[in-house]
Ion transporter
Amino acid sequence: MSGNFRKKLHEIIYEADTPAGKLFDVVLLLLILISVVTVMLESVASIAAVYGEELNIIEWIVTIFFTIEYIARIASVKKPAAYIFSFYGVIDLLSTLPKYVDLLFPGLGFLLSIRALRLLRVFRILKLMHFVGASNQLLTALSKSRIKIAVFLFGVIILCVIMGTLMYIIEGPESGFVNIPISIYWTIVTLTTVGFGDITPVTPFGQFMSAVIMILGYGIIAVPTGLVTAQFMQDSTQKSTQVCRVCNADHHKDKAKYCYNCGNNLNK
Amino acid sequence: MSGNFRKKLHEIIYEADTPAGKLFDVVLLLLILISVVTVMLESVASIAAVYGEELNIIEWIVTIFFTIEYIARIASVKKPAAYIFSFYGVIDLLSTLPKYVDLLFPGLGFLLSIRALRLLRVFRILKLMHFVGASNQLLTALSKSRIKIAVFLFGVIILCVIMGTLMYIIEGPESGFVNIPISIYWTIVTLTTVGFGDITPVTPFGQFMSAVIMILGYGIIAVPTGLVTAQFMQDSTQKSTQVCRVCNADHHKDKAKYCYNCGNNLNK
Amino acid sequence: MSGNFRKKLHEIIYEADTPAGKLFDVVLLLLILISVVTVMLESVASIAAVYGEELNIIEWIVTIFFTIEYIARIASVKKPAAYIFSFYGVIDLLSTLPKYVDLLFPGLGFLLSIRALRLLRVFRILKLMHFVGASNQLLTALSKSRIKIAVFLFGVIILCVIMGTLMYIIEGPESGFVNIPISIYWTIVTLTTVGFGDITPVTPFGQFMSAVIMILGYGIIAVPTGLVTAQFMQDSTQKSTQVCRVCNADHHKDKAKYCYNCGNNLNK
Amino acid sequence: MSGNFRKKLHEIIYEADTPAGKLFDVVLLLLILISVVTVMLESVASIAAVYGEELNIIEWIVTIFFTIEYIARIASVKKPAAYIFSFYGVIDLLSTLPKYVDLLFPGLGFLLSIRALRLLRVFRILKLMHFVGASNQLLTALSKSRIKIAVFLFGVIILCVIMGTLMYIIEGPESGFVNIPISIYWTIVTLTTVGFGDITPVTPFGQFMSAVIMILGYGIIAVPTGLVTAQFMQDSTQKSTQVCRVCNADHHKDKAKYCYNCGNNLNK
């Protein structure tokens, strides 16, 4: 394969600057969406019974496209191994395989977990989203406060372990709190304000403890929110680090050309 | 129709500065509320059986008023087509039609979807709310952070697709996770901390995964909140309304003496 | 009654500066709590059957105290009518009456709504809380953003009316969406992420619409939070309005005595 | 015991600066996790039936380690009484006892509440977390706004008492609102947006009141969030760590040149 063709292919597949590159991304996005919808519909018994054949054909078309894309991706990069063993390389391979497994081992292909691998393609959409600036901003703010959020969630889990055990002792197996793991699961359901209602306390003291857990959950949701908000605020205010060389004023506006305090030209 | 009368009519219907214009808005608001309540009550079988006749009369009175209003609106504007095909023009027409459909095709009029069209009138209340400054402020803040919120919600949906498929594989049809769309629906119910409890996981691993989804949902609600809060804060701190008389730049810092764009002295 | 005694009484009952005034407030708080717990316990059939007599005696003691307090309050103020027809005056009277109604009309006294009037006393606790500075701060922030919150809640209710009607048309009476008011109730339950699960959508399209409502509710909770947070922030930063008379620097710390910029004494 | 050995032991157990001290902390953490998982698994009937013997052996190993640790802790501190009667001293003793109670009183040891004492060890993890800076920051922010949060939660509880009583009067025992405490429990479940669905209103007016409670709960969650966020923001902006050398005042403004308290030049 000529180096020029490979370079051109790389441009189309990996970049989004040229019209061909943009078209490729849009087609890819559409095919991923079609593929995801197909997998979903196939899982609905009534639809699979009527349109099973059509869904199978669509899935084969999509699979063939993804196979060609996978080969093209390997062919166009200089170090194929780096792509193959990257996160998206593995995703691309795994999400293409199910149909071939279906062909080679017809019985095995009906296994749910193998067919569902095709849904891994949605991760690709996340990659396409990286072109959207806003998503990077969100991820930056989340990533900056990730240690604090992790510490908070860890504290929440310890709280759930203690509260769950307490509820197990108070309510006991008769009320559905059959063992400690189930009780902890119930405490998480309650503290996060989800509240399925499949297990509910029946003793007065159990209901009192539940009320305490709920009010706790209602109150401490403020913590992650506060953390992320404070991070967003800092990111949006700390934009310009320029300091005026004449009067030493700082906190200039983002694209200021002149000092707001003394009128000095900041770019000189 | 004399131009003067048309101008007067326009003033009453479209503006709220004159006493007549204000009265018109209040009467309109009241009639919309009466209409909405009537539609609601008609849907309650026990009330419809007893007060059906009275509700029908009220609805006819309201419909006649709205018909007159619709004609007056067309008559008072210079370009009727612009109003007729605008969002509120279509709303006004559609919400007035049901009673006439009822008269012309008695059988058809009993169709729910046609009768419910009358409820579209509540949109008019939103239009009347535009006079309230606070609602514009809210909409501005929401609209400014709408791209970030959309990116966030998109990420949430992808997360729900992956988690929902995983739950479908783990739990299977016996626990109510009968197909992937239902499992995704359940994941949305759980992640948003709604938690109906119509479908609940029964396997230990399914319950563990649910706990993960819940804690995720409890944690990432911080993201939209943080976004909107940061936007509100920015809006409330950017108070300087000075505009540079040389280059017309605005959004100056609070105590700026010189224009950040051209260096002009703002206080002169 | 001597004017001196009345002044003393007023000091004890209405103020909390003297030891006697403080003691009075603590005793009042305790009696209110005892009264509230008594009313609650009386409503529990199993407890009322065993301890009915004791609860009755306690309630009489509390009622007599509140009667004396009510008379003392009227006696100690200069304009009794102002107290009698004030919010707390009405609360005090209504919460004292039930026991006497019980005595005069033994049959009527068993009516729930009359007995429950005694619980109105908890409002008094709110009044005692006014001495706590933090509660005033909270109320100020809430009160300042009350118009925006009202506009937001109004928008939420209109959204619920439209979505509820839509769900009624989609799901229909078979799924529990028996009429429009019930459907709107269900939409509020879902949008606020409460999710009882007593009514749940069963059609695929209904479940899709529910997912939309849930994600909406999950997203727009950011609005009131953002409003209140922005208000709190403003309140906590805008504390000192002093401006230095030497160098014109402002934004001084809350209890600053000297200018942070030039060292001038601010209180001179 | 030689003073040197005791000092060394103290270094390993109470500090995390030396390699031996770090290793001790990691081993302790692992043993706590093993112990917690063991207690959980023992409560699951199906697992206890098959692996009861193995779990018993693991629990004995862990108990022996914790016994040695407890003795070592007492031996290595200068004032053993201070440790023994401290929060963590009591936790350490109580969480070690259950197995010995099991040995001495075989019948009693099967009591849930005694076996569950072993779970108290998770508190130790919280102590190990103190080395993580982020957790201190979180606790500081929470602790600073604790009075405001307490006042808020107190207001919420009073609201729940009043609303719960109202719901009890409206719905009555037929709908599951059997007494006032249960109705208040239901109000807390609803206001905190948990929504189990074990008790749900059935009368139209009861459903209307529920909608009011839900919208209230949806709105006022903004308050604790706003409080904690404002606190986080203040903590992250108050960065100046200068302390005046004349009057020891701290928390100076970011670019303060003079002490706000005594007017001293801070830069000298």
Remarks:
- The interface with chain D takes residues 193-197, 225, 229 of chain B (CB under 8 Å).
- Chain B has twelve helices and no strands.
- Chain B has two domains: 3-131, 144-234.
- The mean pLDDT of chain B is 83.
